[in-house]
Design brief:
Length: about 120
């Protein structure tokens, strides 16, 4: 279900104490859309409508940019590593490494980044 609010998004698996793993969304919004709880709910509801209740995101993280390769493919493994403060491995093909720091900072601000606390 299209919401018209998202420019790009990456869905990742995030450790969860109850389910084992839940969906986390990292999203860049369209220029005129402001991040907030209302937008997060709309996006979460859109995922449920499209995929079902089991895929409701546990968290939605708004960022300015997603890490991409030089071919402009989103590096989801790097997104997950940044969210959970884990090693991302080889990032030699990453075109915008500053995007990883922004994800980590935002996840830390929201208390989402510790893999140990969520597993």
């Amino acid at each position: 279900m299209a919401t018209g609010r998202v420019a790009e998004a990456a869905a990742i698996g995030v450790p969860d104490t109850v389910k084992g793993e839940t969906v986390g969304l990292v999203v860049t919004l369209m220029p005129d859309i402001e991040p907030g709880a209302e937008v997060a709910k709309v996006l979460s509801d859109a995922v449920v409508t499209g995929l079902g209740k089991a895929f409701r995101p546990s968290d939605v993280l708004f960022v300015d940019d997603l890490p991409k390769t030089r071919n402009m493919k989103i590096m989801r493994r790097a997104v997950r590593a940044a969210w959970l403060c884990l090693s991302a491995g080889d990032l030699s093909s990453l075109a915008n490494p500053e995007a990883l720091g922004a994800i980590t900072r935002r996840a830390n601000e929201l208390g989402l980044s510790s893999a140990r606390d969520r597993a």
